[in-house]
Design goal:
Associates with the EF-Tu.GDP complex and induces the exchange of GDP to GTP. It remains bound to the aminoacyl-tRNA.EF-Tu.GTP complex up to the GTP hydrolysis stage on the ribosome. GO terms for molecular function: translation elongation factor activity. Keywords: Cytoplasm, Elongation factor, Protein biosynthesis. It is a single chain. This protein is α+β, with helices and mostly antiparallel strands and 157 residues long. Helix content is 50%, strand content 24%. The chain has a four-stranded antiparallel β-sheet. Strands 3-4 form a two-stranded antiparallel sheet. A hairpin with a 2-residue loop joins strand 3 and strand 4 (118-122).
């Protein structure tokens, strides 16, 4: 049987439903680390089921690093409600920081990179977590990264 403390801890980490957390804890025989892995796998499965849904809303975020590097990224989601969601806004902001510091060549390159704020997580893993938390399809559509004195090249997938 899952304790309230275990459920609360996993809910804070994943935003998964209480029912999903309880079933994961039961499947993991009460081991929170194993339950977390089970929830992550379920989140990935849920994320893959949403990829065919249309994304008409989203955000364009900018970042300027000391006047030397500029980044513009477009991330799409299904609704304006999610586009204003705190987790989504933070995700998009963290993407511009990732692009500024890691200089990916394309969206495909970006999603395979290790996330700069969590070494054991890729941008694809981070994207899947946000999809699972928001319940919507989310797409990193395109970005531009400019560096003073460099070439201005649009980077799409």
């Amino acid at each position: 049987m899952a304790t309230i403390e275990q459920i609360k801890a996993l809910r804070d980490q994943t935003s998964a439903s209480i029912a999903d957390i309880q079933s994961s804890l039961v499947e993991a025989n009460g081991d929170e680390k194993i339950a977390l892995e089970i929830l992550k796998k379920k989140g990935q499965i849920k994320a893959s089921k949403k990829t065919d849904r249309e994304t008409k809303a989203g955000l364009i975020e900018t970042y300027n690093h000391m006047g030397k590097i500029g980044v513009l990224v477009e991330v799409n989601c299904e609704t304006d409600f999610v586009a204003r969601n705190e987790e989504f806004v933070k995700f998009v902001h963290n993407l511009v920081l990732q692009i500024a510091s890691m200089n990916p060549e394309s969206v495909d390159d970006l999603i395979t990179q290790d996330y700069i704020f969590e070494n054991r997580k890729t941008i694809q893993n981070y994207l899947e977590e946000i999809i699972a938390k928001t319940g919507e399809n989310i797409i990193i559509n395109r970005f531009v990264r400019m560096e003073l004195g460099g070439k201005d090249v649009s980077k799409n997938s």
